[in-house]
Every structure is written in structure tokens, then in C-alpha cells.
What does this fold into?
Amino acid sequence: MSAKLIQLRAQRDAKAKEAHAINNKYSADVRMTGADASALDALLNEVESIDAEIARENRLVAAAFDGDEAAQQDIALNAAVQAGRGNSQSDESRAMRAFLSGGIAHMQAEDRARMAARQTPDIRNAMSTTTNSEGGFTVAIEYYRELEIAMKAYGGMRQAAKVIRTATGATMNFPTTDPTAEEGEIVGQNTTATLGETTFANIALDVYKYSSKRIALPFELIQDSFIDIESYVRTLLAMRLGRITNKHYQIGTGTGQPRGLSVAATTGRTGTSGQTTSVTYDDLVFLEHSVDPVYRAMPDCGYIMNDATLGAIRRIKDTQGRPIFVPGYEVGVHGGAPDRLLGRPITIDQYMPVMAANAKSIGFGHLSQYVIRDVMDLTLFRMTDSAFTLLGQVGFVAFMRTGGNFIDVGGAVKFYANSAT
It folds into this structure.
């Protein structure tokens, strides 16, 4: 971790702790003073600003590929160039840099005039890496020795759900019963007790075989590529499986694929007319209390939502003027705290619907009632059989068997649904 990144994280932790300190000064029934509210808003703005700097620094650090001295030298050179743009750079240094970059034509007019005034010998036919005839043909095109990969978060459900592993893929049954409406009675002496039978049901958890889709690499690409193309392909296939399975864990229909959490769980709160893309503090309170207290008391009870939804509710404040979202800070010597919404942990799942008309955009409750079942391990095949060899190729494909279902009959998780209009 770079020194700058360490410094930024320390600054963020300090600001987050200050925000927690101000927020914790007030109980739920005490309104925050104007001065503290302004101070808290300022701290939250600083946290967001530092988060943006941390993200930029992380991208810069990621560019310095481990063990690649050339990449590290590039970063050092970039820093040197940036330093060279400061006021400390002499006229001679600036002129020399311009001359070495492309000859006299690349020098500023005042530098050329200064050279003439000093009777500096005229320089012609300068060699140049940017002009082919002056030496450019001898310079090979350079590529950074690491593939730039577009990234997009896709996890979430495996973080929140209960994950089990089985040796076979046979249907797994979960017997269920809902006796919450059943109660006893008072009977008189010598009076027969009333018949009160109970009922049982079953929830099945099936698994499905997922394929990453195959990739065929020509021998030439494997031999000539300056990156470890096989390693990249293996990682890519695993990511493909991660994306499709997480998608089904959240929004799967249950027909020919896992039944997703947001499909299986019911609605606990619906926004009022006009809230097609918004949610209020009261909505979140109603949503929490739509879940029975026995589930709310579970240690892993919390929220799950798309990051865009979280972004929309970060500025919401309660009736006492306190933000309902409190930024976390990293675990250190004295401990830390995760991001919280109304004191509850937050899981981000990018396959959750964003806020829109009728969208079930926010989930709350005992999330580990959703069970993910894996059959053994992900299997990767590297194929060099005749079907690929005759084409001069090596084939790659990955498979995994997995499934998921919401094992619940008591409403352990409920959703907030945006209004239809």
C-alpha cells in the first residue's frame, strides 16, 4: 500500500470517527442542533471527497504491476515529468526537454529566439523518435505489460446468504411449518381438549449446471501474447460464473433456475404515490417493523440493495436531523465500524433492482435465510483434443453446479417496493 493511500485512509478514518462522535451525542428522541448538523454534513462531504481520492489512488497503485520493473519505472518517470513542470524548472532544462522530444520544431518561439540571441549554433537534421525518417522506424511500439480490464461489481448474495457444500446434486428438501397462528386454550374440568392439528410443508433446493461458455485460443496468441493470456482466461471464466449465479440468487425465477431472494420474499412496505424513484425515512422504519422482532434480533439482520439505491438515501435524515446513513471506518488497533443504515449493516448487490416503478429495490431482514448450495468445486477444463488441435487452438471452459432458494415461511426478509406511479 502506498504512503499516500495509507495517509488518505487515516484521514478518512479520522473524519468518520468524528462523524460517529457527533451522531452518537444525540438519542433517538433528541433533535440535533444546527451547529452539529452543519458540522456533520461537512464531515460527510469530506468523507465522500476522500473516498474519491482513495479510488483514484487505488487505480494508480493497481497500474504498478507487481514485479514489473518497467511499470514501476514508468510511474517514477511520470512523477519526474510532473515535478519537471513546476516553477523550479530552468529555461535551459525546458528547452532541452523540448529539443530532445522532437527537435527545434518542438521548441517554443522564445526558446528559439533565446538560442539565437546567445549565438547558439543552429541545429538541423536532428534525430527524432517521432519522425520516422529521423529514427522513428527504429523505435518499437510499446505496450504496458498488463491488460486493462473493465470492472463491474457483481457479488453480494454470497456475502449475505448461508452457503453450504454437498457431495451430490440430488434434490435437498427442507421441511417447514408455520405454527405462528396456533395457540392453546382454556378448558374446564372434565372437558375434552379441542383438536388442533398442525401442518407441514417442504421447500426444495435443486442445483443447476452452469457453464462459463467456452473460449478457444489460437496457438499463435498463446505463444506471442506479452501477457499471461491463459491466466486471464481462467480468471474470466470464473467471473462469468460468478455473475450469472449471483444474478439468479437475487432475481432468478425459480423455473429452470434458482429462485432469487427478491422474487421469493414478500413486500413489507410500498412507497406512496410519487415515490417511483425515492424512499423516505418513514418507509425504512415501516420496512424494518414489517419483519418480526425475532428476526430483527438476529446478528446478521440488515439491508441489501443496489449501490445506486444506497447513493439515493445517503442524504436522508431522520426527524431529529441526523443522517440515517453513517459512514464506517476501517478496523485498526482500537477497532472499527462498517457502514450502517439505521444502525444496521448494508450489503451491496448490483443485481438488485434500482428504484423504479413497482421495483422491489430495498431488502431488509435475516438475509442468511437464503441458502446457496454448491456441489463440490468449480471445475475448469483445458482442452487440447482433436476438435481444437486441428484448428490450431486450445479450448477452455468451466462448469459448476449450484442452486439457491429462500428457506423461509415466517417472513424473515421483506422488501420495500417503489410506488407504481
Q: What stands out?
A: The radius of gyration is 31 Å. The longest helix spans residues 34-63. The longest strand covers residues 370-383. The mean pLDDT is 81.
